[in-house]
Amino acid sequence: MAKLTDANLVIVKSYWFTHGTVCGFENVLIGRTGYTGEDGFEIYLPSDEATSAMVWNAVLEAGKEWGVIPCGLGARNTLRLEAKMPLYDHEISDTINVWEAGLDRYCKVEKPEFIGREALLQARAADQIRYSQAFR
Asked: How many whole angstroms separate alpha carbon 136 and alpha carbon 134?
């Protein structure tokens, strides 16, 4: 990415962003959300086909020395799942709670009151009962 931008990427912390010129496009938003669990950058450019193709080819060319190759959406999902980074309506939703999603490390029911706390405690208790019955 450093080959393609004038932005100082070293100072961009995880879940932060900056702006810079990317492939000749000025004031591009460059994020480091790592939503796949990888340490990389996301760039937000105009979505027309010519821009997309030009930047895509520039990224592949810039990454040749490191063996950069394209990958599909399935790879994004695999990486995201390995990193325990849920995608709403896939691993967590209105019908899939934090316990069912295996994301209990993010839910601290010991905290003072918060909206949904009682429902989460009931769901956790129900899950524990189902789990213990399954292994009798």
From this structure: 6
Rounded CA separation 136/36 (Å): 38
pLDDT tens track, the chain, 136 positions: 999 999 999 999 988 999 999 999 999 999 998 877 888 899 999 989 999 999 999 999 999 999 999 888 788 888 888 887 888 888 888 888 888 888 888 888 888 888 988 988 888 888 766 655 555 5
CA atoms within 13 A on the CB side of 107: 20
Could you please report the per-residue DSSP string of 73-114? HHHHHHHHHHTT---BTTTBSSSS-TTTTT-GGG--TTSS--
**How far, CA to CA in Å, does 73 sit from each of 36, 61, 77, 80?**
10, 21, 6, 11
Per the CB < 8 A criterion, the answer to whether 11 and 26 are in contact is no
Q: How many CB atoms lie within 10 A of CB 30?
A: 21
Give residues with Cβ within 8 angstroms of 11, minimum separation 6: 18
